[in-house]
Input
Amino acid sequence: MARLRYDWTASLTSVTTMETVMTYKSVVATKRGGPDALQIIENELRPPAAGEVRVKIQAVPVCQDDVAVRVGKRPFLPKLPFTPGYSILGLVDAVGEGVTGFAVGDRVAALTSFGGYAEMIYWPADKLVHIPASLDAAETVTLILNYLVAYQILHRVAQVKTGDKVLIIGASGGVGTAFLQLGQLAGLRMFGLASPGKHQTLMEYGAVPIDYHTQDFVEVIRQTEPDGLDFVFNGMGEEVFGRGLAVLRRGGRLIHYGGPESFGRFLLLVLKLIFYNLLPNGKKIVGYGTHRLGVELFQEDWTALFKLLEAGEIKPLIAAKFPILEARKANELLESGGVVGNIVLLSPELL
Ligand SMILES: NC(=O)c1ccc[n+]([C@@H]2O[C@H](COP(=O)([O-])OP(=O)(O)OC[C@H]3O[C@@H](n4cnc5c(N)ncnc54)[C@H](OP(=O)(O)O)[C@@H]3O)[C@@H](O)[C@H]2O)c1
Output
C-alpha cells in the first residue's frame, strides 16, 4: 500500500503505504497562553464542498486580534484547538460544485477571522474577492483587514472632510498606520498616540506624535487645538472614553473600534457608551466592527483600496516577513511591542 503525502511546494514527498493521502500543514493554538501555544499540525486535504473554494495561502498578516484570542482576552473565544489568521491572500487550488466566477489559479483574498495560519483554507466562494495580478501579496493582504477598518471608519462612519482634525489612539500598529496613510491622503490634521521610538513614522505621515506614556494627550491637544477635534479614533480600551471626549469639539465624535478584553469589559463598554451618549454635551461615541457592515461594502471598499495601492497612493508598512509555518516567531515579535506597521506571514515561494 503506498501512502502518498502531499507537500504543497513539491507535491509528492514520501511513499509509505498504498492508500493516497494528501495533507497540508496548519498552525493551531493548542491552549490559551503565550506564543508557545502555537503548534504545527498536519491535516488531510479534501476536495472543496459545494459552493466552496480551496485556496493555497500565500500571505496572512499577524494582528492583535490573533494574539488576544490566543491569550483569552476576548469575550467570545473559539474552542481549542483553533487556527488563528484573520485575513488571507492566495491562489485558488480547487473549486467545489456550483462555484462560478473563480477558477484554479485565480488570485483571491478573504476576511476569515480564523484559519489563516495554514497552507490551505476552504472558504465560501461568495466571500472571496479577486486580487489584481500587479499587486504585491504582503502589501495587499494588509488591506483586507487593517486598511478596511481605517477606510470604513474614515469614509463610511466619520465621513471625514479635508482639514478635519483627528486623534488616532494606537497610531503605530497595523490599523494605526493605515489610518495615518489614509488620513494623510484625505488631508486631515492628525494627532497620534504612540511610543517615542515610533514617532518618526507618525511625523512622516504629517501627524503630530504624542507619547502617551509621559504626556497627557488632553493637555497637549487643548494647547494646540483649543476649539477641539472633529474625531477621535480609538483602537484601545473603553478607559479612554472620558479623555477622548474631552478633546472633541461640540458635535465631534469618538469612533471606538478596539476589541474588549473580557465579557465584563464588554458590558462596561456598553454601559459607558450609553452613559456618555446621554450626556448633553453634543458629543457622541460610535462603535465600529467589521461584522457590522455587509460583505457587499467590503467588496466595494477593497476595490477602492486596491486602486489606491495600484496607483502608489498608499504603501502599507511591512515591518517583518516570516514563513507561514513560523507564525509562532511572528507572534513573539508582535507581542514584543517593537513593531511599526504590519507583520506578514508568507508562503515559501514569496520569501
Ligand atoms: N473592530 C474591528 O473590526 C477591528 C479590526 C481590527 C483591529 N481592531 C482592533 O484594533 C486594535 C489595533 O489592532 P492592530 O492589529 O493594529 O494592533 P497592533 O498592530 O498590535 O498595534 C497596536 C499598537 O497600539 C499601541 N498601543 C498599545 N497600548 C496603547 C495605549 N494604551 N495607547 C495608545 N497606543 C497603544 C502599540 O504601539 P506603541 O508601542 O506605540 O504603544 C501597538 O503597536 C486592536 O484593539 C484590535 O482589536 C478592531
Q: What stands out?
A: Residues 58 and 208 are 36 Å apart (CA to CA). The mean pLDDT is 94. DSSP finds nine helices and 17 strands in the chain.
